[in-house]
Design goal:
With 152 residues, the protein is mainly α. It folds into two domains: 1-74, no CATH class; 76-152, no CATH class. Helices cover 66% and strands 0% of the residues. It has helices at 8-27, 43-65, 78-112, 120-141. It is globular, with a radius of gyration of 18 Å.
Length: 152
């Protein structure tokens, strides 16, 4: 079986994505989905979870079929992994009390700190665009019951 694995990094990453997506599906199975006209708060997490499972499946198949780097080849970039994880946690902890804008900006800033290549001026412009899109989509478009700012 080991000889059949051509890209163990892809296989491992794909399996991890599938596992996280399946965990999200199990955790979010009781979230309200609503209807097509009025989607509930569980729709987006469920869609993202299934997308993660799908992408993970494709990457896993790629790891089985296409020669790639081995699991222990090269240097592992831990900083981005840690920062993205911290950003997700920060968003989850801040969104209820801090509101959508604060939680988005803080989580994006933590992610940006995960690489030395971040250009902070571009990040500021990107953050404004993403916050406008986030508020327009989730608050105005979908009418989700999320505070925009901490004082709302």
């Amino acid at each position: 079986m080991i000889r059949r694995i051509k890209g163990s990094q892809d296989l491992t990453a794909g399996a991890m994505f599938v596992a996280i997506g399946l965990l999200a599906i199990v955790v979010g199975r009781d979230y309200p989905l609503g209807s097509w006209q009025r989607p509930g708060t569980g729709v987006l997490p469920m869609i993202l979870a299934w997308c993660l499972v799908g992408i993970g499946g494709v990457i896993t198949i790629k790891g089985l079929l296409i020669r790639g780097a081995g699991l222990l080849d090269g240097v592992w970039a831990w900083r981005p992994v840690i920062m993205v994880t911290l950003a997700g946690l920060a968003f989850a902890l801040l969104v209820n009390d801090g509101g959508l804008v604060v939680s988005m900006v803080v989580s994006m800033a933590i992610c940006a700190a995960g690489t030395p290549e971040t250009r902070w001026r571009e990040f500021a412009i990107f953050s404004v665009i993403m916050v406008v899109i986030g508020v327009a989509l989730f608050i105005k478009g979908l009418g989700m019951p999320i505070k925009v700012f901490p004082w709302n």
